[in-house]
Amino acid sequence: MGNALRFLYVNCCKPSADSDSLSHHPGVSALAHDLYNFEINSQVPQGLSKHVVSSKKAQSNWYKKLSDAWRETKPPPKTPEETSRLVIQTLKRHQKADVEGLLAFYGLPLPHSLVELTSDGTPPSHQQGLKFELHTLPVDAKAVADGDTVTVYVSTTDPREASCLPRDVQNAAIQRSKARAQKNYAKADQLHKQIIDSGYRSIPVNHEEVLARKYRIRLRRNQGDRCTRKCNAIWSRGQGRTD
After folding, report:
1. Does the residue 26 lie in any domain?
2. Would strands 208-218 and 149-155 be described as parallel, antiparallel, or unpaired?
3. Domain of 88?
4. Is 46 part of a structural domain of the chain?
């Protein structure tokens, strides 16, 4: 009887990592697999505690909620962005450090890197002529003072940036975090200079340090000041776009 029930669960209810409806992103598949394992043995994945601050009991509560939410979502999440939104929505009443730690554990996009959805749940449509889009960190208004060029930063948690992050920059960021924890600020400043010289910077966002890549972009003026005002409005929302 037990084997029969498990067979029915695996084929009918399991949030399968092998389903054709899921993407091949390892984080999406890994989370689906871990939710399935949790349904079977009530165990959360090993190593998760290194990324979050709450207890194993609390973690079990998350996975129960996520398992229920995953099963109720039709169709199930297919992309890293959809999966992140499901996690964020399901655990919205939990600590931010835990939610972001869980996302980081699976290599899923963090909240500040997600594109805002429209009222019908779809990403905003691209404007005609748009060729490239940067999901930047919040932009300081001083960065667009002349209306002609703008300095923006893109978090290295962005999949595109993560794929080309130099190893020496990553190591310098890790060593800088350790130096700051040890209050060795002279060493931390030296490492930050090394990071900046490589085209990156550690930027405080919501009381946390985010390693980000620097972009200096020239805005093309097609319609005089009206274009400049429009571009400035786009940058101020924290999503850099170029035409």
Report:
1. yes
2. antiparallel
3. 2-109
4. yes
